[in-house]
Amino acid sequence: MEQKQLLIFHLDDGKELRGGQRQLLYLVKELNKLGHLNRIICRKDSPLERTAQRKGFSTITLPYFFEWDPVSALMLRNKIKTMAAASGHCEPPVLHAHTSHAAAVSYLASINMPCVRIAHRRVDFIPSRGLSSKFKYEKAHHIIAISRPVKDIMLSLGLSESKIAVVNSTVDLDETPWDNGGFEKYREAARRVIAQKFGIASESPWIGSVIALVPHKDPENFAKAAALMVEKHPEARFLLAGSGELAEKVRRLVKILNIEDRFHLLGYYDNPYELLSALDIFVLPSSEEGMGSVLIEAMNSRLPIVATRAGGITDVIEDRANGLIVDIKDPAGLAAAQIELLEDSPLRHRIAEEGHRRRLDFSSPKMAELTVKIYEQELENIKHHRHTVA
Known about the structure:
Layout: E1 7-11, H1 19-33, E2 37-42, H2 47-54, E3 59-61, H3 70-87, E4 94-97, H4 100-110, E5 116-121, H5 131-138, E6 142-145, H6 148-155, E7 164-166, H7 183-198, E8 206-210, H8 219-229, E9 237-241, H9 247-256, E10 263-267, H10 272-278, E11 281-284, H11 294-300, E12 305-308, E13 324-326, H12 331-343, H13 345-358, H14 364-383
Helix pairs in contact: 1-14, 3-4, 4-5, 7-10, 8-9, 8-12, 11-13
């Protein structure tokens, strides 16, 4: 049976291009391939808008003044009605909110308008239990959680299990910058570039992380573990790529720990695969994590992984299969796992190879297929009057 073309509005009020925004772009790419009409609703001149336009995706901008912004909601409502009429779609449009604040704008824009409202939940902390969450999540037709722990958190709000689906984050394998068989050559070139750019000894083992420098990613955990690790392996070098509110605090901590000559703060890195491919071990030190999509990019880069058991990380990493798992906020445990990988070459190789195999479990076409099924299910519910309009 021929698949119906859907009109889908993807709402994201993010001011940066982080994992969630990249996942949105992966989804839109695959939905475009399937023949659906997609519009990305983002901030003007945001990294998301610039990246989407560079990829040839259609965008609409909203001011997103604040969470329950009636101006943005009214602008969106008018855009939806105009586009739905112009496209001649008989199916109601899909409003897919990829951030919490966008879910509020989506609800306001859709009041008394037939549509499917999807709320995507990417973080593993409990939302407030007030009216805001009630309207954003209880009134959504379906919630997509990026991992089982995130689904459990949404269930703790009293939401029905039938309206929450787990769709793991993914990696776009088409964006892999090396051809089959060309990884080692790419890695050698990347390592030369980074060593020269940042003055890092290329003969040393490189242990790194690519995270936002914000509290729930816990970059201080990474720095503290590095200080413990250099006591046994002073030759190791640590590379931390990312920007955020904790950047200066991490810089001061590195100085206090007296590891400035071994710990390199690289800032925001706009070519993550270049950095990932150059590493010897990847570390995700988070204290909270919806899933950790960077783990899939690390697996695609053939990296052995050390990660905490925060949130949905265990949906991606199986301990001692495709990574080593340690407790959150445990620098000693984090250091011990890195030391084990550094000193055990067969284990390091086996974990890297198993991770590279498992990356295929998180493909963007699979994510799109599961998401479309949710859209279609909720459109059927509307058709058979199993949903109220607002």
